[in-house]
Amino acid sequence: MTEALVLTTGQLELRVYQGDLTQVHADAIVNAANPAMNPGGGVDGAINLAAGPRLAPLQRSLGPLAVGAAVLTPGFDLPAKFIIHTVGPIYRPEAHARVSQQLQQCYQSCLDLAAAQELTSIAFPAISTGVYGFPIGLSLPLVASVLRTFGRQPSSIRRVDLVCFKTAAAASYQEYFAVDFGET
Ligand code: AR6
Q1: Could you give the residue ranges of the DSSP H alpha helices within the chain?
Q2: What is the pLDDT of residues 11-39, one digit of tens each?
Q3: Please, which residues have CB within 8 angstroms of residue 159's CB and are 6 or more apart in sequence?
Q4: Which of 62, 86, 91, 131 to mutate to test the pocket of ligand 1 (most atoms within 8 A of CB)?
Q5: Which of 109, 118, 138, 159 could make an S-S bridge to 70, C-beta 3.0–4.6 Å?
Q6: CA 87, CA 35: separation in Å to the nearest integer?
Q7: Does 143 sit in the ligand 1 pocket, CB within 6 Å?
Q8: Cα–Cα–Cα angle for 169, 110, 34, nearest 5°?
Q9: How far is the CA of 88 from the centre of ligand 1 (A)?
Q10: What are the beta bridge partners of residue 18?
Q11: Is the complex ipTM more than 0.90?
Q12: Is any ligand 1 atom within 6 A of the Cβ of residue 47?
């Protein structure tokens, strides 16, 4: 885990860093799942490995899940109390507007669900930017805009972690967020 960039937007403390989501201590971590809710690869595979075998049957039982929707399960063996599973869009350049809106809907649904559960902290991976091919650079303003708007509204959420697995992705995230939100 590298040093976090720590920023403030409204009532949210944002922490942007390189790390492994499965090791994050937060009320909830977000899983980038698929519509069938079949445990897959990427962060989904890592979460299932770390959460232990009780997760997979429960995860499957919650499918199918629409793109942009979110559901909650226990964190089982993870340090996080809960997992919020969402399904990102598969990137298609010819449908840029639609997939952009769907990606924002993922972040929004996860934040709304965490707030509905009165959680105070949530940690996100870079949803859709792995197997689903969403270019990181195009995802950044979309994620930032959801967080900025959410931070202005009253909710239980105080801390949002943006956790990038790859060093290059973390560098892009930190560079973008430092400029967009101003370093504190
Ligand atoms: N911690 C944080 N981020 C991670 C970790 C980790 N341990 N492992 C990977 N990432 P992906 P998607 C990053 O492919 O694009 C699965 O098979 C990774 O570097 O996990 O939404 C599902 O079952 C990337 O930046 O999710 C679906 O079928 C980000 O997590 C499909 O992949 C997301 O990459 C979903 O594809």
Answers
A1: 42-51, 55-61, 96-116, 136-152, 167-181
A2: 999 999 999 999 999 999 999 999 999 99
A3: 12, 13, 15, 26, 120, 121, 122
A4: 131
A5: 109
A6: 6
A7: no
A8: 70
A9: 10
A10: 164
A11: yes
A12: no
